[in-house]
Amino acid sequence: MQRIGFDLAALIARVALGVIFVTHGWQKLQGGVPATAAAFAQIGVPLPQLSALFAIVVESLGGVLLIIGLLVRLAALGLLIDMLGAIMFVHGGHGVMVQNGGWELAGALGVVCLLLVALGGGRIGIDGILHGTYRRRAERRAAEQDLAGHAPATSIRPEADTTRPMSARPAGYFDDTVADEPSRRRPPPG
């Protein structure tokens, strides 16, 4: 029951966080990379063209990945880096409160991303489905191998006795699997 609680909480957190990031990424995309880069340059973000492109791609694509639950840890890591950059270069010098341009929203979003990096996105999502399918297949293969190791021999012909020389084998013994001793073969009893 505890696991279901985590899975539901992770789903809600992923979807809400994903919607916020997709919205911010879409807003930057609507303005375009040049306009976003100009705004970044004006507030002192280093490498404004690259930073603008990074923010647009990571926020848009990362948000979608969080919503559907695919590559959650990787998407959350990219978004965490994005939020650290926002805190360091934009919001950090303005205090905590968001109405003063502070870091509270970027900090909260970054902390949730950190939790998703550390704990994953739960079983309700594409990652969870793929992981569950892979785990069940691996368990099935292991069980089949374990059963095969305990199964009785299915061969009709007895195994060749290659541990004793032909002269030490029982009288009437016929072994057609030993090809290196053709002169010592005995015909089957009859």
TrEMBL record:
What the entry lists under Pfam families is as follows: DoxX
* Mode of membrane association: Multi-pass membrane protein
Q: Which InterPro entries match?
A: DoxX, DoxX-like_oxidoreductase
Query: Where is region (Disordered) located?
Result: 141-190
Major subcellular site: membrane
Where is the protein localized?
A: Cell membrane
Q: Which UniProt keywords apply?
A: Cell membrane, Membrane, Transmembrane, Transmembrane helix
Q: Which residues cross the membrane?
A: 51-72, 79-99, 105-126
Q: Which domain of life is it from?
A: Bacteria
**Similarity section:** Belongs to the DoxX family.
| Name listed for the protein in its UniProt record | DoxX family protein
Lineage here is: Bacteria, Bacillati, Actinomycetota, Actinomycetes, Streptosporangiales
